[in-house]
Amino acid sequence: MSGDRARRLDDLRELVASVEPVVAAHERVLPVDPAVARLLPAGGLRRGTMLWVGGTSGATSLALGLLAGPTRHGAWVGALSVSSVGWPAAAELGVDLHRVAVVRAGGPDWSVAAAALVDAFDLVLCGPDHQPTRRDVLRLAARARERGSVVVAFGEDHHERAWPGVHLRLHVEPGHPARWLGPDQGWGHLTGRRLRVTVSGRHGVDRPRSVDLWSPGPDGTVATGDVPDAGVATVLQFPRRPA
Amino acid sequence: MGVDPDPRLRSLAVEVADLPAVAVGRPVDVPVAVLHANRIVASSPVARAAGVTIGLRRREAQSRCPTLELHPADGNRDARAFEPALRSIEELAPRVEVVRPGRCVVPTRGPSRYHGGDRALADLVLGRVRSALGPAAVVGVGVADGPRAAQVLAVESLRHHSPVVAPPGATAVHLAPLPVRVLGSVVADVDRPAGSDGSLPDLLRRLGVRTLGHLAALPAPDVSARFGVAGRLAHQVSTGCETVPADVVDPPLDLAVASELDPPVDRVDRVAFTAKVLADEFTARLGGRGLACTRVLVVVETVDGERFERLWRHEGRLTASAVAQRVRWQLDGWCRSHRPSGSPSGSGDRGDSSDSGDRPDAGVCRIELVPDQIVPDAGRQLGFWGGSDEVATSALRALARIQGQLGVESVLVPEWRGGRAPAEQIQLVPLEGVDLDARADRPSAPWPGAIPSPAPARIWPSPRPVELVDAGGGPVRVSGRGELSGVPHRCRIDGADWVRVGSWAGPWCSDERWWDATAHRRRARLQLVLSTGVGDVAHLVALESGSWWLEATYD
Prior knowledge:
Order of helices and strands of chain A: HEHEEHEHEHEHEEEEEEH
CATH superfamily of chain A: P-loop containing nucleotide triphosphate hydrolases
Structural class of chain A: alpha/beta
Number of helices of chain B: 15
Strand content of chain A: 15-25%
Mean pLDDT of chain A: 82
Largest sheet of chain A: 9 strands, mixed
Distance between the termini of chain A: 54 Å
Low-confidence stretches of chain B: 190-197, 340-358, 380-388
Strand content of chain B: 25-35%
Helix content of chain B: 25-40%
Distance between the termini of chain B: 68 Å
Number of helices of chain A: 7
Oligomer: heterodimer
Number of strands of chain B: 20
CATH class of chain A: Alpha Beta
Helix content of chain A: 25-40%
Number of strands of chain A: 12
Structural class of chain B: alpha+beta
Strand order of the largest sheet of chain B: 8-7-1-6-5-11-10-12-9
CATH topology of the domain at 7-175 in chain B: MutS, DNA mismatch repair protein, domain I
Largest interface: A-B, 60 and 59 residues
Number of domains of chain A: 1
C-alpha cells in the first residue's frame, strides 16, 4: 500500500509541478526516460538550453533516446538536416513518430527553418548534414533561451566545432570501447550495446562525470545497469554452435 | 414510422466505383490498382477479376496478378478525374454537394419535377456521368428520402448496373436487407472512425444487429441511449426518416472567411497553401463559438472575373485540413476542366507547357469559405487544460510557415510502410499528403524476413561501396542457397583503411519481386561488427549483383 501511496503522491507532485502558475523558463524541464535522466543534471531537458551529443559511434541513438520521453509526453520534435537518421530505430528507442516533423533545408535556408522550429517546437533536433556558422548557432541559442525550447545537436566529433556555447555536452567515450553484444562468427544478431557517456557542461555539472548505459538495451530503449543483470543476460546469451 | 419524410431532403446520390483506379487513365484491359499505406484502396474491373480486392497488401496483390500496375493514391488526381462528372450533373440539377471525389449528392425536389420524376432524373444522371467518365468507370445512382440513404443505395446500385430508386416513404423497405456494414461510409463516428475495431457497424454486427432492417426495428430512444449521436443517425438512415438535425444553426454571415490574393497567384500549390491558412482561420472562428461545419461553400475568383463555386459536404465535421484538401481538389478539378483531356498541354497560350497542368487560366485573386451548414460541435475531449493540443496547433502553424518560405515539399513526416530493410520500413512523406488525425501506427506483427531489431540509427541516403574479404584475401560471396564463400575477416569502406571484422551475423537473403523483370532485386545482408581502435562499430552491409554496399550503421 505504501508504494501505491508514494506513487500517487509522486503523481500529484508532478501534477502540481505542471500546473504551477508562474514558472521561469529555466526552471522547467521536459521529462525524459529514467535511464537518460541519469545523464542530465536537471533530471530532464531544461527548457531554453542547447545540448551537444557527440562521439565516433553511438551519438545518434543517444540523441534519439533523449527525444523518447518528451514525445511520449506530448512534446513535438522538429528535426533538421537529418537525412541519414533511421526512423525505425527512433521508434524502437521509444520516440513517438506521430510527434516528429522533418524539415529539409540546407545552406541559407537552414537558419530560417531552425528559427521557425525553435519558435514553436519544444525540441529541435539538428543533424550533421549541415554545419551551421558560428553566428547562426549563437542566434539560435538566444532564440531557444527566449522561447524555452531545447536544441539537441548531434554528430561525430569533428562536427562539434560548429556548436559553440552548448550548455550540456554528452560525449560517447572513445577510450572506453563501445561493445556490441549479440553476433558471433555468423550466428546470433545484434542485440545490445554498452556505452560510456561523459557529461560535461556549464549547467549544473561542476566536473565531468561518466555514466555507463545500454543503448539500445534489452528492450530496445536506452537502459542503465552496470553489468548485464539476469534479464539482459538471457537476452544476450545465444546457444553456441557445436564446433 | 409515424414521421413523414421531409421532401426537401429527398436526394439523389452518385457513386463512382473505384474512382482512384479510373483516374489513373489506363486502358480498360490493363489491370490497375491504387495503393495507400501498402494496402489496395481501389482496383480496376480486370484486376478485380484476377482477385485483387480492396484491403490486400501490395505483395499479396502482385502475387495474385503479376501484370498488375500499381499507382500511389493521389486525391488531387481523383478530383481532376471526377470534375467532368460533376459538370455534367450540374447541367441537370443545381446545388451538387460533393462528399469526396467519386461521390456526390443532389437534392431532387426541383430537378425531379422538371425532368419527369426520380426515375427519369436518375437515368439521365447515370447516362451523363457514364459518358463524362468514359467506359472504364462503373457508376451507381441511388435516390432515397435522405442524403445518407441515397448514398447507401448508390453503392448498392453498383451491383445492379441500373439506378436504385426508393419511392417516397419506401426507403426503409429498400434498405432493410442490406448489411449494417454499409453504414460505415455515411455515418461518421468521431470517437471510432469507420473500419477500426469497435466502430459502430462493427459493434452492431457483433451484437447481432446484422441488417438495416434489424436496426430499424429497434426503438429509436433505446438506440439513441445506447449508441449516442452516431447511433441515432444510423437509426434515422435505416428507417428512412432522416431529418435536418434539429440543432442545425443558420450560419451567421460573419463566419465566412475570405482572403484577397494580391498579387494574384497562378500556381495551384500556392493557392492551396493560402487556403490552408484560411481554413485554419475558418475552423478557429467556428470553434470559437463552439460550432463545427458539415457543409462548406468554396468560392474561387480569378482576375478575369471568373467565379467558381462548389459545395462540399462531410458526414462528420470538416476539420481545417479537410477544408484545405477540398479547396485543393476544387482547384485541381477546375484546372483540368479548362484543359480538354484530349490535349493535356494543348493550351500553348501560356508559353510553358511543362507545368501548365498545375495552373489556372488566370491568376486567382480571391478565395472565400462560406459555412453552409453548421452544427454545435459536440467536440472531442482535449488534453488536460487543452495543453497538448495547443502545442500541436502552434507546431503545425510553424510548419506551415516553413512550407511558405521553403516550399511545400520541405516539411515531411515519417509514415510506417513496412518492409524487410530498415530503409523501407518508414518513409518520409510531405505533410500535405498526410491526415494527421488518422495516421498508421507501428504494425504490431513482425515483418517476415526483416532484419531483427534493433534497427540501425543511421541509414545512408546513398550507399557506399564496401570491400569484404576472408582471411585468405579473397572476396566474400553469398551463394544462391545463402551460404558464405568464406568467413569475413577484413573490410574496407569507400576506399578507407582496412578494418578487422570482430564478429558478424547473417546473411539475411531477400529475393524481391522475382516476377517482375525490371523491379527484381536479390540481396543478401550481413551485420558486421568492426573492431576499431575506438570501440566496436556495427554496420549493415548488403551484397547486390556481386558487390557489397554499406546500407546503414548502428550508430
